[in-house]
C-alpha cells in the first residue's frame, strides 16, 4: 500500500497548483482529506494488513496527511489574502476626493405650516385629532346643520363616490367625531386634506388643506374665540397681523364671522393672491350652533363653544410669500427645495 502514497502526493501537488481561489482549494481539500477522500480510503484499507505492515503503512499515511493538511493551510492563507486584496482594489474609494453634492431633503411648506399650527394649539391645551378623507353625508353635512337642499351637497361642489359616500369637503367632520368621543370641556383641532369641485386659479385648488378647531365648555363666548385667533396668528406670523371680522354665514355656527388679514404679499395694495382687494379671507369662525352640539351628544343648554376653520394653503402662501396656490401642488422639486430651511424663503 505504500506504493500508493507517492502517486497521491503527486496528484495533490498538481491539483494544489491549479487552485486559484478558495473555492477550488476547498474542492482539493475534500478530494484528498475529506471523509470520502484519498487519505481516508488508505486508512480504511489498513484493516486488511498485518500488524507489522499496518504500523509501517499507517505511519506513512499519517505523515502524508499532516503534510497535505499543512500545505492546504498555507495555500488557504495565501489565497484568502489575494482575494481580500482583489476585493479592496475593486471597491476602492478615494476618501480625499471632494464628496458628491448631496442635497438635504426638505418638508413641504404645508407640512411646515401644519406642524407649527399643531405646536401653537398644543401649547394652548388643544388635542390634535384626525379623520378619514372619505366621509358619509351625515358627518360631512347633516351633523353640521347643512340643509338637505344646501348647494354644497350638489355634485357641482362635492366629489361623490359609489355607495353614497363622498370626499370630505371640509375638516369639520373631525369636530363631530371628536364630540362623540370626548366629553366637555373640549379643546381640539384637526388638520388634513379636503376636496371640492373648484375652478383652478391663483387662490383655488380642487384638493387643498384645512385646519379645524373647537373649544366647548360652560360660558364660552366670542371673546374666547377672538383671543385664541389673535394668539394663533401672532405666533404663526411672528408679528402682529392686521385683521378684521365680517359677519358671515356658516350652517354650523351662529353667529358666524369671516376673519380676514391684510395681504402680506402686497402689503394691502392688491395682487392676484388677494384678488386685488388687499385683504385675504383666512378663516370662517363663530359660536357652535346648538344643532351641532346636539349632533355631538352635548347639551347646548349647559355648554357653549366656538369653532373655526381655515385653509392652510392660503396661510402657507402668506407665511412663505407664495403668490399662486398651484405651486404647492405641482410637485416641482425646485420649488420644494426653497424650504430646506423653514426660515429661509422668498417670493415665488
TrEMBL record:
Which residue intervals define the domain Aminoacyl-transfer RNA synthetases class-II family profile in the entry? 113-317
Reaction catalysed by this enzyme: tRNA(Phe) + L-phenylalanine + ATP = L-phenylalanyl-tRNA(Phe) + AMP + diphosphate + H(+)
InterPro entries named in the record: aa-tRNA-synth_II, aa-tRNA-synth_II/BPL/LPL, Phe-tRNA_ligase_II_N, Phe_tRNA_ligase_alpha1_bac, Phenylalanyl-tRNA_Synthase, tRNA-bd_arm
What PROSITE patterns would the database entry show? AA_TRNA_LIGASE_II
Task: Kindly list the positions annotated as binding Mg(2+).
Answer: 254
Q: Where in the cell is it found?
A: Cytoplasm
Please name the GO terms that the record assigns under molecular function.
ATP binding; magnesium ion binding; phenylalanine-tRNA ligase activity; tRNA binding
Enzyme Commission identifier(s): 6.1.1.20
Q: Name one GO cellular component term.
A: cytoplasm
Respond yes or no to whether keyword Metal-binding is given for this record: yes
Q: Which GO terms describe its biological process?
A: phenylalanyl-tRNA aminoacylation
The record lists the membrane-crossing segments as none
Q: How does it assemble?
A: Tetramer of two alpha and two beta subunits.
* Protein's recorded name: Phenylalanine--tRNA ligase alpha subunit
